Amino acid sequence: MRFLLCFSASFLFVPFTHAQFITVLNVPPDPNIGDNGSIGSNTKLNLFDGGRIGESFEAGVPFGFSMNVEINISGGMVGDGFDANGGSTVNVSAGMIGRSFRANGGSTVNISGGVVGDAFRANGGSTVNISGGSVGHGFSSFFSEVNISGGSIGRSGEALEGSTVNISGGSTGVEFNAYDRSTVNVSGGYLGGSFNAFPGSTTNISGGRVGQNFRAIDTAVVNVTGGVVEDGFTSSGDRTLVVLSGGSVGDNFRTGGTFRVYGGEYRLNGQPIPGLSTLGDTMNLTLPELSVFSGTLADGTPFVFSQFESDSIDRGVLTLEVTALPDIIDAPLVLPGDSAPLGIRDGQHLRIEQGGRLGDHFNAGMGSTVTMTGGEVGYNFEALGATVTISGGLIGDHFDAFGGSTVNISGGSVGRDFNAFRDSIVNISGGEIGNGLDANRGSVVNISGGSFGSIDADQDSQVNLFGIRFVVDGVDIQETLEPYMPFTINDRGVPFVALLSDGSEFSLNLADTEFDPRATLTVSLVRPGDTNADGLVNVDDLNDVRNAFGSIGPNDGTLTGDAVPWNGIVDIDDLNAVRNNFGAGVQQAVPEPSFTAMALIGIGMFPLLGGGRRR
Questions:
Q1: Does residue 241 belong to any structural domain of this protein?
Q2: 222 and 201 Cβ atoms separated by less than 8 Å
Q3: CA-to-CA distance for 387 and 248, rounded, in angstroms?
């Protein structure tokens, strides 16, 4: 039998104004409330640490409407089957609520902390505001409004018919489903992976982050104006509509139905698409096989779609429209300091320094420049027609260099699965490269230093190595090489090791499965102690070191006075390299070094000599 602590108010007679209470219960010190308890109108219940409310508790009249019913949970425990009925307000800041908590029509539930168990349901006409705490698995809303600005929602959330779910912060777990006539608005926070937009639903993404494997199914509508959509977005069915005008999307993007893009600067394989130069121009476009489709969205974020990244846009579904683009900011963006963008465009320069951070799926568009001396860049950094220079910091996995890009790496660390695509150039003179560096068809990768995991080279790619020593199948080929003259290695299926120009050891698996026989591999011998790439070590190199002593710059051989092996600093190590190799090189007549030169080497600068090369 249900225990009623106070009477419910009549719709025809309301003797007390809002927020006046006849009864205030504080548990503890008031006794715990057992199973099947309830409170009615003009009653406030405060639950503190150590207090307990039993199972199947009713806040307000079931299937009716009460007035001035308030429950504040700042500790303690509420059992399973708690119902917040019409006219009640439940505020949860701490403590625990069991399974099957229901917010019924006309109730308001505010969750800023604590733990709410599985199967929490927001029923028709209720309002639920979640700004903190955690809600368990199986959360659902039905003809209700749910506002999530913080906290976390467990897996298997559902926006059922007639509900609106607004996500501006916090996070939802995997497998969130939006059903017919529901609307999900994402402006912040994190919407977990495996989101399913079922037929008749609408999903609007203007910010935040949407996890992997988003699915839009026949008659669903998805509008992306901002934020980040991770890998594996798929729309299926002839009547699905996906509209993209801003934000950033990951790889493995697949669309059927109708796909509309709003923006400009549209290109196909790096070339402008004719007929799309004036505001309002539209075009239906079918992408050729193995093409790269790029442009800038209406919010100013560059994008790239390519089958090389498992993107697939069905024939006849893509419509492009030219819209106004934001003005380009000429001043360099600096991180930390400025707000981290989702991408940069032609003429823009981004500097990432120690403490700076870019998120996942950043896009460096055509004509942009990124300079990184420290900090961190997340997963799936994409560069198209951009210049990227990395001397420090950390780049996440799956860095993509598309056509027209030049990537210079002299330090820092790049994660796994670094892809160089057709018409890109990658110069690596230092730093650390993770497993899976892939020189795809038509790309050029130049390596003179650094440390590496595995390297793959596809047909028609070119990998050029610069070093001090090369050993192929156990044979040192140094004596057969002319300094700075590329020599092609045609051997496959044999061991290959080298000492690169920066003095680091390097090995390559020449198995056919990793290094295609139709890929080009060249080696170029550099001369230890040589500062000017003339193949000789003589007084010119000595003068270079003397005149540039103390200089700091790139470690790719372009810094005057930096002798092989290069380290980007002109210091005592370079002087020692010149001294120890003086006279090396072949020419018709090698002049004897002058007395002055010998004095500089042997006497004048002798106090500077000593110590090994810094690493």
A1: yes
A2: no
A3: 20
Q: Are residues 416 and 279 located together in one domain of the fold? A: no
Query: Is residue 338 located within the same domain as residue 433?
Result: yes
- Spatial separation of the C-alpha atoms in residues 108 and 127, rounded to whole Å: 5
d(CA 574, CA 284): 60
d(CA 402, CA 422): 7
In degrees, to the nearest 5, what angle opens at C-alpha 576 toward C-alphas 572 and 582? 140
Asked if 304 and 248 touch (Cβ cutoff 8 Å), the reply is no
Asked if the structure places residue 70 within a domain, the reply is: yes
For 354-366, b/e burial (b = at least 16 CB within 10 A) is eebebbbbbbbbb
Do 235 and 296 have their domain in common?
yes
Amino acid identity of residue 588, one-letter, is Q
pLDDT at residue 10, as a whole number: 31
The residue out of 326, 359, 376 marking a domain boundary is: 326
Domain count, the chain: 4
Using DSSP, state whether 79 is helix, strand or coil: coil
Cα distances (angstroms) measured from residue 211 to each of 47, 441, 587:
37, 31, 63
Task: Give dist(CA 58, CA 80) in Å, integer.
Answer: 11
Q: Alpha-carbon distance 267 to 270, whole Å?
A: 5
Distance CA 344, CA 326 (A): 11
Instruction: Give the phi and the psi of residue 112 in degrees, each rounded to 5.
Output: -115, -5
Phi, psi of 203 (to 5 degrees): -125, 125
Write down the pLDDT at residue 297: 98
The residue type of 139 is F
Counting as low any pLDDT under 50, the low residues of the chain are 1-18, 587-615
**pLDDT tens digit sequence for 517-575:** 999 999 999 988 888 888 889 999 999 999 999 988 877 778 898 888 777 889 898 89
- Whether 129 maps to a domain, the answer reads no
The verdict on 341 and 475 lying in the same domain is yes
DSSP output for 349-391? EEEE-TT-EE-SS-EE-TT-EEEESSSEE-S--EESS-EEEES
Whether residues 365 and 507 share a domain: the answer is yes
The domain in which residue 290 lies consists of: 211-326
Burial class for 113, CB neighbours closer than 10 Å (0-12, 13-18, 19+): middle
d(CA 432, CA 436) in angstroms, rounded, equals 12
Beta strand pairing call for 58-59 and 37-39: parallel
CA distance 119 to 398: 38
| Together in a domain, 366 and 410 | yes
Task: Confirm whether 342 is domain-assigned.
Answer: yes
Instruction: Round to whole Å and give the CA distance between 341 and 307.
Output: 25
- Cα separation, 74 vs 45, in Å, equals 11
Among the candidates 525, 552, 583, a domain finishes at 525
How far is the C-alpha of 565 from the C-alpha of 498, rounded, in Å?
13
How far apart CA 51 and CA 37 sit, in angstroms, is 14
Q: How far is CA 10 from CA 37, 67, 300, in A?
A: 20, 9, 57
Same domain, 495 and 406: yes
Are residues 521 and 546 located together in one domain of the fold? no
